[in-house]
Amino acid sequence: MAIQKRKAKFNRRSPIAAAIVLAAGLLLSGGGYAIASSAVAAEAAPNAADIAEGHKLFLANCASCHGKNAEGTQNAPSLIGVGAASVDFQVSTGRMPGAASGPQLEVKPVQFNASQTAKMAAYVASLAPGPAIPDASLIAANGDSTRGGELFRINCAMCHNAAGAGGALTQGKYAPNLMGANPKEIYEALITGPQNMPVFNDANLTPADKNDVITYLMFLESNPSPGGNELGNLGPVVEGLFVWLAVLGGIIGITVWLGAKSN
């Protein structure tokens, strides 16, 4: 009995047994992770039929400017490497296909449904790696609105105004009003940098930072100005102009009226 106990004790403490247990644990955890990752990737990856259909839509509606292989032309840039998020943003907001050349693409009625847009995005994404369409967890608008306001004023307010009301840029360009934009549009704009906007990748603003910014903008949109009429949220210049035109104009009008009455 004592000999058996010593053997069992020896076996439990054997380096070989420990190595076998460690190897088995690594095999199980690594194998499980590989299976789960492949399942998620297979679920997220668009199928060949969607890519082929997206290619047909691209040839019919986009190739005349961007080239048959999205290589770009003198009229439009290459789309290789822009990712699915860029296509989804430009097409789902009506900016693309462009109606006419100009300093900036205008927002127009959307010309493609969600399925067609997703297929074109899948085709462009298949050409080269690029920013993907964000999932729901990234655009939940459940972050810190106070911190989001700080980040927005630091990174965005110089063009979009501190209240997201937009503003004029040079050479006929402008930063659009962000009120009315949905969370997915805002996130896609941040990661793709459409037109005059810089790209805010995860090294500039983390996904949590972007969610905070979106939360701030959604808060602004859902909460009216506590100070009364916001006058478009265009700042002190507009408010000062209102004072000059409305208040001082009224005083001048009363003065003229009193003078005419006395005569």
What can you see in these coordinates?
About 3% of the residues have low confidence. This protein is mainly α and 263 residues long. The protein folds into 3 domains: 30 residues; 80 residues, Cytochrome Bc1 Complex, Chain D, domain 2, CATH 1.10.760; 88 residues, Cytochrome c-like domain (Cytochrome Bc1 Complex, Chain D, domain 2, Orthogonal Bundle). The longest helix is centred in the N-terminal third of the chain and has 30 residues. The chain has a two-stranded antiparallel ribbon. α7 crosses α10. β1 and β2 form a beta hairpin. Helix content is 57%, strand content 2%.
Task: For this entry, give a set of tags.
11 helices; Cytochrome Bc1 Complex, Chain D, domain 2; 57% helix; mainly alpha; 3 domains; flat; two-stranded antiparallel ribbon; 2 strands; 263 residues
How do the helices and strands follow one another from N- to C-terminus? HHHHHHHHEEHHH
Briefly, what CATH class of the largest domain?
Mainly Alpha
Largest sheet strand order: 1-2
Would you tell me the structural class of the helices and strands? mainly alpha
In short:
Helices cover 57% and strands 2% of the residues. With 263 residues, the chain is mainly alpha-helical. The radius of gyration is 29 Å and the shape is flat.
Topology:
Blueprint: H1 2-12, H2 15-44, H3 48-61, H4 63-66, H5 83-92, H6 114-127, H7 145-155, H8 157-160, E1 167-168, E2 174-175, H9 183-192, H10 207-222, H11 236-262
Antiparallel strand pairs: 1-2
Helix pairs in contact: 3-6, 5-6, 5-9, 7-10, 9-10
